[in-house]
Write a structure and sequence with these properties.
575 residues, repeat, four-stranded antiparallel beta sheet, alpha+beta, binds 2-acetamido-2-deoxy-beta-D-glucopyranose, membrane, binds calcium ion, eight-stranded mixed beta sheet
């Protein structure tokens, strides 16, 4: 039923479009069996003459003629210099507002500058036109000059209320000489270079005082590149606007500036003997445009002296560039011309409703908030240890279990990094913690070879391979060697007898050390030979191993001998 209603609406709109013009309705009441609902459409205000809304500033400040009063001549008849400009006399004054007034009864009114008395100093003037509102050009800008069009001028535009400016078009009787640009005509532009800033010679040559007075910025000619002859196919142009933001921006501005660089010369060189015939005079500036309302308004009105879109679709702002308070469930979007002919409204959705909202939190939150200056909608209070704009990330100290869906309650698993063994409590996407030196394992709770665990991994003091306890010492949990009574040092490498006297069990047994040493000197190799060759049973082998390998089950006698031998034999014999 709704589908049929939509179809009827479509037909109805087509009819309306033909009667009213396209995109003029922001909404229409749609009656279905279920009742009446508002159907929203992309919409835009009508094009209008923007000259009455523009604020004009001329520079330099004293450039307007008449203060003090002065005479001026004309190019056509330079010796008839009876005309006078006097700012204090309303009949003889030529203030800037005469560029935007409504002329009545065929009386041409114009702004006029001082004459070029200071030649050869250039005669320069800027005219800045400000709307304090983004506008979209809909036709040609036309500037009407009285007493001849300038020999050189430039048109600039600003998109940001006059903070930055960019050239829009250059005008000169000799583009190459004046601006270093080859002369071009707007009608030679094609789709590939429709937004090219050109210099044109069409409007700067002397054509006589009765000739063409108008200087144009050819908006229409550029539209015709896409919309065809007489702009018959505007849909095609609008489709281009949708796909090419640069094209649309090219026709958008908040301010325009005319830089008058050289006045009309009457088709010849500057005649120094009569400089009173050189000046600028503008009688009218036409700027046909529409308020830029991002396709969210069909009306644009003057409020507090500034143009303002009358925003629909629950949008707000001067250009309907934001969603209204309470309608920020989804990201603001400009309306679209597509699909033709009614476009898409891209209405702002009420916060807290899920219909049409993109408050996507993967089931970890049901609340979103709009961050104005980033223009994003973000989930708030993500649960289940999630975080992020869409609760799509895991909180610090958790990682994603890749074997479950993002909306699973247990999607984020605690890292559980060992506090002693890891650098911090965060882990990477596969759950690996970042370990301190000597530590390993997913959670950093294990030690690498060469380390032992004691509030984290500490480097071994002793072990069975490289850091062996010597002289019969035993390694206790890799932390220290337990040395025999006679030895000391970290690896029991130092003998307690310093000077070679009173070693081994002290002096109470009566045997002198040299005598014992002599006996051992004979006994040891003998014993070694004997045990090494004759007794090869495994139990005895440890006897000939380094002392740290000597196990307790070896007979005490053998141990004693070994110890004695250790004392006398060079260590290298065992290594
Ligand atoms: C006109 O404006 C331009 C900036 O766009 C500036 O550089 C120049 O000095 C101004 N000229 C006059 C006469 O104020
Ligand atoms: C320009 O428009 C804004 C928004 O409407 C307004 O707040 C501001 O006062 C206007 N500025 C001028 C100079 O009119
Ligand atoms: C634009 O492109 C056309 C051909 O595609 C070329 O003839 C014309 O000179 C170009 N105009 C400018 C200003 O580059
Ligand atoms: C918001 O838009 C809806 C249509 O989506 C409309 O019915 C409602 O009146 C609008 N509310 C406001 C405050 O503009
Ligand atoms: C990830 O999820 C699967 C399926 O629920 C579960 O079997 C597995 O234990 C989880 N992994 C971790 C590290 O929690
Ligand atoms: C996590 O760290 C481990 C160990 O450093 C590494 O093997 C793994 O590739 C890392 N995973 C990711 C997703 O970075
Ligand atoms: Ca006028």
């Amino acid at each position: 039923m709704l589908e049929r209603a939509t179809f009827f609406l479509f037909v109805l709109l087509h009819t309306l479009v033909q009667v009213q013009g396209q995109y003029e309705l922001c909404k229409s009441l749609l009656t279905t069996d279920e009742g009446s609902v508002w159907e929203q459409h992309a919409c835009q205000p009508k094009a209008q003459s923007m000259k009455e809304f523009m604020r004009i500033r001329v520079e330099p400040p004293g450039i307007t003629c008449g203060n003090p009063p002065e005479r001026f001549c004309t190019l056509e008849n330079p010796y008839l210099c009876s005309d006078e400009c006097d700012a204090s006399n309303p009949d003889l004054a030529h203030p800037p507002q005469l560029m935007q007034d409504r002329e009545r009864g065929g009386l041409v009114t114009y702004w006029q500058t001082q004459t070029w008395r200071r030649y050869p100093e250039p005669l320069l003037a800027n005219i800045t036109l400000s709307w304090n509102k983004s506008l979209e050009l809909t036709d040609d800008i036309e500037i009407t000059f009285e007493y001849g069009r300038p020999t050189a001028m430039a048109l600039e535009k600003s998109l940001d209320y006059g903070h930055t400016w960019q050239p829009y078009q250059f005008y000169a009787d000799d583009c190459l000489d004046m601006f270093g640009m080859a002369p071009q005509r707007a009608r030679d532009l094609t789709a590939s270079n429709a937004t090219r800033v050109i210099c044109t010679e069409l409007y700067s040559r002397w054509v006589g005082a009765k000739g063409d007075k108008v200087v144009r910025f050819e908006g229409r000619t550029r539209f015709a590149i896409f919309a065809g002859h007489r702009l018959r196919d505007m849909d095609s142009l609008r489709a281009r606007f949708e796909s090419n933001k640069g094209l649309r921006d090219f026709f958008t501005f908040t301010d325009l500036r005319l830089r008058l660089l050289k006045p009309a010369l009457g088709g010849t060189y500057v005649q120094r003997d009569n400089l009173l015939k050189y000046f600028y005079a503008i009688s009218n500036i036409e700027v046909p445009a529409r308020c830029k309302c991002n396709l969210h308004a069909s009306q644009c009105v003057l409020m507090d002296g500034t143009l303002q879109c009358v925003c629909e679709h629950n949008t707000t702002g001067q250009d309907c560039q934001r969603c209204k308070k309470g309608f920020k469930a989804k990201i603001w979007k400009a309306g679209s011309y597509l699909p033709t002919p009614i476009g898409t409204p891209n209405t702002c959705a009420q916060a807290g409703t899920s219909s049409g909202s993109n408050c996507e939190c993967h089931g970890h939150s049901n609340r979103c908030s709009f961050i104005d200056y980033l223009n994003i909608v973000t989930c708030v209070s993500c649960k289940h240890n999630t975080r992020g704009q869409n609760c799509q990330h895991c909180r610090m100290g958790f990682y994603r279990n890749s074997s479950v869906e993002l909306d699973d309650e247990s999607v984020c698993v605690e890292c559980g990094c060992n506090q002693m063994g890891s650098l911090h409590d965060r882990c990477n996407d596969t759950g690996f913690c970042q370990c301190k030196e000597g530590t390993t394992g997913i959670k950093c709770d294990e030690c690498l070879p060469g380390y032992y665990w004691k509030q984290g991994c500490q480097p071994n003091v002793c072990d069975e391979e490289l850091l062996m306890c010597q002289n019969g010492g035993t390694c206790h949990q890799n932390q220290r060697c337990i040395c025999p009574h006679e030895f000391k040092g970290v690896l029991c490498q130092h003998s307690r007898c310093e000077d070679g006297k009173k070693c081994i069990h002290g002096d109470h047994n009566g045997a002198s050390v040299p005598a014992l040493s002599l006996a051992l000197l004979v006994l040891c190799p003998l014993l070694t030979l004997l045990l090494g060759s004759a007794v090869l049973r495994p139990e005895t082998v440890p006897v000939f191993l380094p002392p740290s390998h000597t196990s307790t089950h070896t007979c005490d006698g053998a141990l004693a001998i070994t110890l004695l031998c250790t004392l006398k034999e060079p260590r290298t014999s065992w290594t």
